[in-house]
Amino acid sequence: MDSLIAAAGRALAVGDALGALKLVALREDPPALALRGIAMAQLGDYPRARDLLRQAARGFGPREERARARCVVAEAEVALAMRELGGAPRTLTEAGAALAARGDLANAWQAQLIAVRRLLLLGRLDEAGAALAALDASALPPALAAVAELATAELALRSLRTATARAALQRAAAAAAHAQVRALQAEVEEARVSLSRPAARLIHGGHEQPLRLDEVEALLASDALVVDACRRGLRNGAARQPLARRPVLFALLRALAEGYPGDVERNALIARVFRTRKPDDTHRARLRVEMGRLRKTIAAMAEIEATPEGYALKPRGGGKVAVLAPPIDGEQASLQALLADGAAWSTSALAQALGDSQRTVQRALAELEAAGRVRSIGRARAQRWLAPSLAGFATILLLPAALPAE
Amino acid sequence: MNRKSEQQATAMPVSTAEIVREYAPLGSGGDIGGVTYDGRDVWAAAGSRVIALDPASGEIVRSLDCAAHAGTAFDGKHLYQIVEARIDKIDPATGDVLASIPAPGQGGDSGLTWAEGSLWVGHYRERKIYQIDPNNGAVLRTIESNRYVTGVTWMDGELWHGTWEGDESELRRIDAHTGEVRERLAMPAGTNVSGLEYDGADLFYCGGGPTGKIRAVRAPRRAAG
Prior knowledge:
The structure holds 2 protein chains of 2 kinds. Chain A is of the alpha+beta class. Chain A has helices at 3-13, 17-24, 30-42, 46-59, 65-81, 89-101, 105-121, 125-133, 142-158, 162-179, 182-196, 213-221, 247-259, 266-273, 281-297, 331-339, 347-354, 358-370, 395-398; strands spanning 198-204, 207-212, 225-228, 233-236, 239-242, 263-265, 302-306, 310-315, 321-325, 375-377, 384-386. Chain B starts with a helix and ends in a 7-residue tail after the last strand.
């Protein structure tokens, strides 16, 4: 390493991107290109940063495998910041392995974490969980540990394990404080605040009450029969019956649950589920058929009794019945509640779950996307919708670690 | 470098450098750039300061607050330190910068040593060593190597330089006129050389780059006379 590279590297490490650029702006050798790339990334010019990092990676000679691999890792991180998730993960895996083999563990871990974050962004939660489990969080340096804990928290929240998430966020906060990276601390703080915001509404015996995520978790763990209008299904303790693909059955079930312990009139059910105020015999016949299907589908958890006026829900355990609804009414809130599971949904699956037309759903999604409250990957028929990640991950602040002085 | 000299270099016998002692003045982090020796202490460039290490105890005995990005040299009275694209002449008693000359590699400079009234500067990726006038920085001579040059030092009239090309490092003795490689000492895997200084007796001091270490390597014995 030469003098200006050392000086520019020191400037970058303290976040002085302009100072670093001043020192190496006119140089075209690979180490200078790499530093310029990192500086541009810190300044937010990701396309230019990626170009420079690619040029640098190409320029390093066969004996400079470590420097080349670092450029690949930094480039992957820039791609992640650009939300370009199409890159080959194999290149990143190989670079990580090359770094680990040369004793550069910090950057090898960095490569693994980028892979985890990529999987999270793609909604591939099982793979993200497996990749995360392969990392030993206690061995990581503080900044990387904070990122790993944020990813752990996100995974836990997606599957509604709030205690696990809370503990992970606590560790993330400690690690971020230790790393003294302000942006990382802010991200952890934001994720913690989001835990205490209302995540759903409980509708129970005609009353409504906002619930935090941990209260939702407690409710789902209780012996109550929960009609989950957020994720579209029926849950009773560990037993669950997804109904996201059966919108009519779900609408009937929700109406019955809101009427519990009483019964619900046939005409009221028809008006609500079939959306007509002038019921005729065909509607009543269809209601009978759908009720029969619902009865069969949820038989393990509840019965449906026909009464002189209509139908009534009878939970098998005889316990409470509760309806869990999105925190606010409306198309958009319902979509966000569905996406909160962290999985990648197609427009048609969302439309099916909500019982709306694809066009309606698409319009709502477009508005949500413009507001940054959902994001999509892929194009046209392959387009999938996801919730925004809980933490944006202060990508660029971690970059200097990708290229410590050689 | 041309293919012929590369072949000559690879044809030279390689022995393994024997590390006599390892100092960790900066612990496991921080950058060691150049190193030099004033007859008593080992001086090392450490980014924002120049530190002096007592080689017997391994303790840091002095620390000067001045920018220090690459090679360091000592002329018997003053320290010379490569900073960005210049060479600062520093009073070791106070840390004051007494004068500055432009570095010949315009910031691509790496190693620095003092010998025979001249400064010798390694130009890292250009694989060159320059002899310059310490008063004005004028280049008096250019010697070409075939590896990236890190530290440079003179040992009893022989020119040695450290190489650090990617993941491999060596100490090399080269012909000061032709640049031909005469002798090679390979550093063990994972130990890179960021600065080099002969102590006048039987040791080379080598900067360890980002490991923050300084290593003492046994200098090859010469037949008496």
